[in-house]
Amino acid sequence: DALEQQLDDLQGFQIIAHRGASGYAPEHTWFAYDKARDMGADYLELDLHMSADNQLVAIHDDTLERTTNGEGNVKDHTLEALKALDAGSWFNQAHPEYANDDYAGAKLLTLDEVIDRYGDSVRYYIETKSPDRYPELQRALVETLEAEGLVDAGAVVIQSFSQDSLKQIHELNADIPLVQLVWYSTAEDGDGLVEWTGVTPAPSEITDADFQAIADYAVGIGPNVTYEGQDVIDAGFVDQAHANGLLVHAYTINEPDAMQRLLDWGVDGMFTNFPDRLNSIAE
Ligand code: G3P
Ligand code: CA
């Protein structure tokens, strides 16, 4: 069936274009997504929020300030208001080396618009936030994916830091491959070393049972690799995940040296802002 086929496909190495080819063009706009597709990405990565009128919108932050000329929370704006914003000009200021006049005035996009444009010419790697923030999001997302035939086509992975969100999606449709995101840091707080992850213990303490708990509902784990320039996982982490039947999709890897190192560790995919670099290294 479609899930089996997609799981077979996921055994190969996956290039996941993080917010599109967001190193080269404003994240989550047509410019970034078109480049990602043209650079041979296997998946477009989309972060989803909901507008005040419950539309699924592709944007990373909770708030509008960093990547648009708007202000405040995404969820407090209607889709019409979000569509009036300029989601491209910030990039030209932040990244003059890749600035392009065409980016000025780029629009935010709904999930429906993205699926309408690309259909099954790419796959979609969609991130959900905590259901506390958007209680309606899981159901709206699964309904959209089903209606568009993307679950049957095996063209979608859903990822989240929120185990609640993933478990809700798994209940709604068990044929969607899920990836549990985790975040490992090595920061010091008042009590000493913190290796916070939310869902698993720190990599140094992780057990097969911890991986198995994820494998109950997910096909993979998505860890960050470095924190403040230091590795937080290693090849042993990848091996242990594999031994427990989980794929490893690491984020967010932009430098060729790091890409090669992670390929040597045997990861199954990487999120990158520069899919062309990964494509040339992973071949
Ligand atoms: O989804 C993987 C990676 O994108 C998680 O971090 O903050 O870029 O969504 P973030
Ligand atoms: Ca993301």
TrEMBL record:
Q: Which UniProt keywords apply?
A: Signal
Give a yes or no for keyword Signal in this entry. Answer: yes
Where does the GP-PDE domain lie? Answer: 13-282
Q: Report the GO molecular function annotations.
A: phosphoric diester hydrolase activity
Q: InterPro entries, alphabetically?
A: GP_PDE_dom (IPR030395), PLC-like_Pdiesterase_TIM-brl (IPR017946)
Q: Which PROSITE patterns match?
A: GP_PDE
Superkingdom assignment: Bacteria
**Keyword Protein biosynthesis (UniProt):** no
Checking SUPFAM superfamilies in the record gives: PLC-like phosphodiesterases (SSF51695)
Q: Which GO terms describe its biological process?
A: lipid metabolic process
Listed PANTHER family: GLYCEROPHOSPHODIESTER PHOSPHODIESTERASE, GLYCEROPHOSPHORYL DIESTER PHOSPHODIESTERASE
Q: What is this protein called?
A: Glycerophosphoryl diester phosphodiesterase
Native organism: Onishia taeanensis
